[in-house]
Write a structure and sequence with these properties.
Elements: H1 21-28, H2 31-41, H3 47-54, H4 58-70, E1 74-77, E2 80-83, H5 85-98, H6 109-118, E3 119-120, E4 123-124, H7 131-141, E5 150-152, H8 153-161, H9 167-176, E6 180-183, E7 186-189
Antiparallel strand pairs: 1-2, 3-4, 5-7, 6-7
Length: 196
């Protein structure tokens, strides 16, 4: 019997049809419940099978299954358990739809597409291998340097380290592209767009 409908031998109870992502994360933060869900996802179908697969006592599996069933993630019929895997995907889609639309990183849609692919939460997830994409990213990064200010190498490393761990590669690329100039261990901005 699908979840959401009352059982004929139980009082009518309202079940949640959509479980939010925060609830799922909270439920799976418990190691026992996480192991129960993993065992169910891997094919265990009864409390006994879950206990064996997860290496847990039957009592712990029964308690975890009860909690997961109340949240709508597991259907429990006696000793038989079924994981509602579709609810995980639905929660992920709902969370993605509810997430605020990120501010564009550039007014130019083509540049914004490149930056969105490589910059997440103010960090560079990887340095683009393709020159044209790397140039877009470097022109974005160079804006952390004020025009007319000279920076010692350790300060350049700190500013670039906020973006990505490989500061030596970023420094080299910025100098090679003419966006920073280096002389005697001191750097200054020498290229890129300047906001006025």
């Amino acid at each position: 019997m699908p979840l959401g409908y009352p059982s004929p031998n139980r009082p009518m109870r309202r079940y949640r049809q959509i479980v939010d992502a925060a609830t799922i994360v909270g439920l799976l933060a418990d190691r026992t419940r996480l192991r129960v869900v993993a065992a169910l996802a891997l094919g265990a179908a009864t409390i006994e099978e879950v206990a064996e697969a997860a290496g847990l006592p039957l009592k712990d599996v029964a308690l975890a299954a009860r909690r997961l069933a109340r949240a709508g993630l597991v259907h429990r019929d006696g000793h038989t358990l079924a994981l509602h895997t579709e609810r995980f995907g639905a929660a992920a889609r709902a969370a993605a739809a509810a997430a605020p639309v990120p501010e564009p990183l550039s007014e130019d849609p083509a540049e914004d597409a490149v930056l969105s692919a490589f910059v997440r939460n103010g960090r560079l997830v990887s340095i683009p291998a393709q020159h044209s994409k790397r140039r877009v990213v470097l022109e974005h990064l160079v804006r952390v340097f004020e025009p007319g200010v000279r920076y010692p190498e350790r300060e350049v490393n700190v500013l670039l380290g906020v973006w990505h761990a490989d500061v030596a590669a970023l420094r080299r690329y910025l100098v090679d592209e003419g966006l920073l100039t280096r002389e005697s261990g001191v750097y200054w901005r020498s290229g890129g767009w300047v906001d006025v």
